[in-house]
């Protein structure tokens, strides 16, 4: 099973037993009930407010206790989650509050797109895993500020070099950092952001033509095709 980009979802587990392995990290955040998970022979229960990271390749069995279990689940190839496997969240209540907020957003059509876009990075930050020495020496990218800049510049074609210039990095450095910190390529990050903005405008009642104009799609039909995909 493969996750090419971070995927955030809300899952309702039952007492039916499941078992699988995948080539990406799986972050489980308990919202209700208890989910029993056995990873490579090591068992634990994930109760409300608790969290656990399953490493790529680790086979795990799972089964909810009586009454079922609801978890916010992040499937991600993002390498920094490796630090969270052995390190408990530094502020579990804060992480749990964020998980509940993201779960609520996922159930609201007008907020789901932004939760999917920014949730994975916010969860990693909230976990509080200590960065490596190499990470502390690198220029920090303010992703929300960069997203706001991109939204203000939809009227012109944007590429990796434009984003890198705003972030004060070379295009190759920015492309690598985007893959590491956002889990996918810079252009996919940009396209996802633009589509999320377009969805918001359409939910606010803007016409297809006006939404396409504001978000830089070459035509209303191009926007419609992107939304259908």
Automatic annotation (TrEMBL):
<dbReference type="GO" id="GO:0003700">
    <property type="term" value="F:DNA-binding transcription factor activity"/>
</dbReference>
<dbReference type="Pfam" id="PF12833">
    <property type="entry name" value="HTH_18"/>
</dbReference>
<protein>
    <submittedName>
        <fullName>AraC family transcriptional regulator</fullName>
    </submittedName>
</protein>
<dbReference type="InterPro" id="IPR014710">
    <property type="entry name" value="RmlC-like_jellyroll"/>
</dbReference>
<feature type="domain" description="HTH araC/xylS-type">
    <location>
        <begin position="144"/>
        <end position="229"/>
    </location>
</feature>
<dbReference type="InterPro" id="IPR050204">
    <property type="entry name" value="AraC_XylS_family_regulators"/>
</dbReference>
<dbReference type="GO" id="GO:0043565">
    <property type="term" value="F:sequence-specific DNA binding"/>
</dbReference>
<keyword id="KW-0804">Transcription</keyword>
<dbReference type="Pfam" id="PF02311">
    <property type="entry name" value="AraC_binding"/>
</dbReference>
<dbReference type="InterPro" id="IPR011051">
    <property type="entry name" value="RmlC_Cupin_sf"/>
</dbReference>
<dbReference type="InterPro" id="IPR018060">
    <property type="entry name" value="HTH_AraC"/>
</dbReference>
<keyword id="KW-0238">DNA-binding</keyword>
<keyword id="KW-0805">Transcription regulation</keyword>
<dbReference type="InterPro" id="IPR003313">
    <property type="entry name" value="AraC-bd"/>
</dbReference>
């Amino acid at each position: 099973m493969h996750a090419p980009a971070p995927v955030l979802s809300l899952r309702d587990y039952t007492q039916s037993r499941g078992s699988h392995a995948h080539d990406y990290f799986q972050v489980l955040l308990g919202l209700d009930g208890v989910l029993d998970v056995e990873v490579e022979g090591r068992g634990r229960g994930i109760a409300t407010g608790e969290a656990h990271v399953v490493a790529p390749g680790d086979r795990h069995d799972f089964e909810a206790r009586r009454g079922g279990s609801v978890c916010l689940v992040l499937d991600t190839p993002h390498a920094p989650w490796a630090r969270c496997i052995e390190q408990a969240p530094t502020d579990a209540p804060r992480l749990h509050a964020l998980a509940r907020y993201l779960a609520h957003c996922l159930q609201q059509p007008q907020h789901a797109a932004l939760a999917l876009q920014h949730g994975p990075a916010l969860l990693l930050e909230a976990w509080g895993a200590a960065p490596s020495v190499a990470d502390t020496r690198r220029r920090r990218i303010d992703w929300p500020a960069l997203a706001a800049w991109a939204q203000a510049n939809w009227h012109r074609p944007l590429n990796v070099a434009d984003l890198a210039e705003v972030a004060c990095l070379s295009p190759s450095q920015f492309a690598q950092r985007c893959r590491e910190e956002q889990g996918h390529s810079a252009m996919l990050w940009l396209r996802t952001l633009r589509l999320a903005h377009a969805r918001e405008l359409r939910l606010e009642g803007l016409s297809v033509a006006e939404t396409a104009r504001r978000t830089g799609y070459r035509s209303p039909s191009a926007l419609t095709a992107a939304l259908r995909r």
